[in-house]
Amino acid sequence: MASGELDSAPQRCSVLTKISNGIQHALESFFYKLGHAVGAHPGWTICIMLFVAGLCMVGLLRFRQESRDTKLWVPPDADALDHKEWVDKRFPSSARFSFFIVTPTEDANVLTPSVLQELYVLHELVLNVTARGSPFFKQYQTSWEELCFRRDPRHCWIDSILSLWEFDRERIFNLTESSILSELNKANLTDPWNGGMFPINNTIGGASYDSRGRIVSAGALQIAYRIFTNESFNDNLGELEDQRADDFESHVDIIGQRSFKTFHSSVLTTYGFSEEAGKAIQDDLTLLAAGYILIILYVCLNLGQVTRLKHRIWLSIGGVVSAGFGIGVSFGLCSAFGLFYGPVHSVLPFLLLGVGVDDMFVIVSSYESLPEKAHKEKNIAERIGLTLKEAGVSVTVTSLTDLVAFLVGSTTVLPALQSFCVFAGIGILFDLVFQVTFFTALLAIDGMRVDARRDACCFCRLPETYSETKCCWPWWPFKSGWLKRFIGDVYAPALMKMPVKIAVILTTLVVFSFGTYGLTMLERHFDFKWFLPSGSYVLDYFSNQDQFFPSVGLETAVYTGILFCVILYVQLCCLHGY
């Protein structure tokens, strides 16, 4: 029994080896024929691939963005979406808020006549805001009276300490400190402007009390202005917007950042938060652009040798363009299929460019590794065929591995990640296609240039006396192939020494141990303030809110249908008591 198992093991290995060798031989044969065809007709190959890229990028006509959280991060079949649709239909939200928090500049108390009088000046500035549309686009003019959210036909809904005196200028400018405290310490304090109980906990922060529990001072005041909004969906940006409300709030943000004599003001609006978060994204995009430039420079300096004949700067740029075509085809096809572009998709060009650059180096390295005899005796078509025979299998295996990983990721229920994975998978596939066709055709043309001994910059024929020891740029500190020589002559021999092996293994184990320990301390936490850049004026508002209004949190609402049963109504009242 054991002997039979031992005899069958080599047979199974032999079968698997034959299958593996058969697949590899088929791939090598395919890529040799492809490379030979590309090398024989590089011009036609470039034209065909340009046509394919252009045809696929026609799909960009259907390009659309998506910024709504419910469309990005909530599964399409989630109950929460059904609940939101039910609430939006029966209780549509039509209000936006502009918040101010004021803190005293000198005294530690905001409950003084001078502060309230200047607060009234701020109040008048808000009421006098007039927003106008762009003269080049949509023209309109709107004011506070047109936009304010009204509780009744006479009153706009404003939560402010000034509502206790019904925003009456004469009464406010005749206040004394004692009359202010007397008003605030009334039992069952009501709001004569808005009706109902005065929201003292949301309006007065950092309050101090005497021995009888009466307010004697406060560290901050919060004011909330409600405006009516009529949002519409912007197909280009994939988000809901109200241009009139945005313009109005942009003026409110300017008011909130003004300097006042008796208090410091911090402001929060929907528009302001969005704009400040957008600035942080723009800063990240700047760094991302710098990353693109560094990658391109690295490719230009290292794809070839630093000589007039073999530095390959134009081939490097062509390779980056080839990766760009892969990105464009991905965006075009995915847009044609109806997939959206979300916030996480901004890293896709960087990812696909990295994959394309890696394929470029593999192909060029394979070309340079051909025997010197092959470069002298074989024509460019045969050399490109031999190059792809070796490199094609390598780049295909790595690309298909990445493709499968992203295809598995596309099975997620989160729409944003699903779309991202499909974009990335198609991008990697076509990145491979363009590297083994478009870029390889450029490599064939570059090989013809080298055979003709033409300058890599201006393509003029080099003199017969030219020697490869002469460098294109005399100031360049490294000799040609310095990185390859460093790895081959210094790094690799050192890595083969036993002490170095032991040190590498021990270092790896130590780093892995620290990483594992850190993994046990991993915590999940999210704060929307992370979207804001440091130094943002919106962060000042949140800082004041955390300091003076720590008990004010997010509102929670419970919605029901019509309650016909008295018992259910009583139970709902009991729930409110909690």
Strand tally = 11
What is the molecular shape? elongated
Tally of DSSP helical segments: 20
Major β-sheet annotation: 5 strands, antiparallel
> pLDDT average, as an integer?
84
N-to-C terminal Cα separation, in Å? 74 Å
Question: Brief description of this entry?
Answer:
The chain is α+β, with helices and mostly antiparallel strands and 578 residues long. The chain has helices spanning 2-40, 42-56, 69-72, 79-90, 113-127, 144-147, 169-173, 177-184, 200-203, 243-256, 270-302, 313-336, 348-368, 372-377, 380-409, 415-451, 482-495, 498-520, 537-548, 566-577; strands at residues 95-104, 130-132, 141-143, 158-159, 204-205, 208-209, 215-217, 220-228, 232-234, 239-241, 263-269.
Written account of the structure:
The model has no long low-confidence stretch (mean pLDDT 84). Strands 1, 4, 5, 8 and 11 form a 5-stranded antiparallel β-sheet that branches. Helices cover 57% and strands 8% of the residues. The protein contains 20 helices and 11 strands. It is α+β, with helices and mostly antiparallel strands and 578 residues long. Helix 2 runs parallel beside helix 12 (313-336), helix 12 (313-336) packs antiparallel against helix 16 (415-451) and helix 13 runs antiparallel to helix 15.
Secondary-structure topology with pairs:
Blueprint: H1 2-40, H2 42-56, H3 69-72, H4 79-90, E1 95-104, H5 113-127, E2 130-132, E3 141-143, H6 144-147, E4 158-159, H7 169-173, H8 177-184, H9 200-203, E5 204-205, E6 208-209, E7 215-217, E8 220-228, E9 232-234, E10 239-241, H10 243-256, E11 263-269, H11 270-302, H12 313-336, H13 348-368, H14 372-377, H15 380-409, H16 415-451, H17 482-495, H18 498-520, H19 537-548, H20 566-577
Antiparallel strand pairs: 1-8, 1-11, 2-3, 4-8, 5-8, 6-7, 9-10
